[in-house]
Specification:
2 domains, 10 helices, Beta-Lactamase, about 240 residues, alpha+beta, Arc Repressor Mutant, subunit A
Length: about 240
């Protein structure tokens, strides 16, 4: 799969590739022996820049900021980001550092959002203009599929995220309590909303935590959100 990602980049005129399976992991994506793919397989636009050794980089690169905000693949050209639809999420990203880069031409970025809050991304780059909008329109779906296959397989093989065993199914009451807890409600307030005693609310929250493999209220909410039990809407 690593070789397929590199081959796709070569084919499309985007041969310089950076990949990370988990943007929150300071260690670079690598093989069983711990060798970074950036050293063994992927090439970068500046061969002297060992970017994968800079653990602060993931916090400052506009491509990765955008990858955290959208699950859609997107392209970069002439200081701006775009995708198949209009979105204010990309419009607000500052790409001036990339525009000033002497080596970067254009790019396609494929975010991969996985359960339990894992976010990865693969960046395909060129050193010159290749008509990336045309390439994106024709090939973004294929690149996204390649990225998903590689990153999902890599994370599972490396045991990420931790405690990733299949959780027991949550009951309706457990989910309701978690949703209101995620909204910032106290146990007493949840009890009033759901017409339950405080002890019953705590019982449901403890059971949910045990099923999710969580060690506390905050982690229960985080894991439930990552598994789709707690959404962004009202409970």
């Amino acid at each position: 799969m690593v070789a397929a990602v590199q081959a796709a980049g070569e084919e499309l005129g985007l041969p310089f590739i950076a990949a990370q399976a988990d943007l929150g992991d300071p260690e670079p994506m690598g093989d069983e022996q711990g060798r970074p793919y950036a050293e063994t397989t992927f090439r970068w636009i500046d061969p002297d820049h060992a970017y994968w050794r800079d653990r602060r980089l993931a916090l400052h690169v506009s491509f990765l900021t955008a990858a955290r905000l959208t699950a859609d693949p997107f392209f970069y050209t002439e200081g701006r980001l775009g995708t198949w639809r209009s979105t204010a999420l990309l419009d607000g990203i500052d790409c001036r550092p990339e525009l000033l880069s002497p080596n970067l031409g254009e790019a396609i970025v494929t975010p991969v959002h996985q359960p339990r809050g894992l976010v990865g991304a693969i960046v395909w780059c060129s050193t010159e203009r290749i008509g990336v909008e045309r390439v994106f329109k024709a090939h973004a779906a294929r690149l996204q599929a390649l990225a998903l296959r590689l990153i999902a397989a890599h994370n599972e093989a490396r045991g990420r995220p931790r405690h990733a065993a299949v959780p027991q199914t949550l009951t309706r009451r457990e989910v309701q309590c978690l949703r209101w807890a995620a909204a910032g409600k106290t146990d007493a307030e949840i009890g009033i909303i759901l017409d339950l005693s405080v002890s019953t609310v705590r019982f449901h929250l403890r059971n949910a935590a045990a099923k999710l493999g969580a060690t506390g209220r905050a982690q229960s909410i985080q894991l439930a959100a990552g598994l789709g039990y707690v959404g962004a809407g009202a409970a």
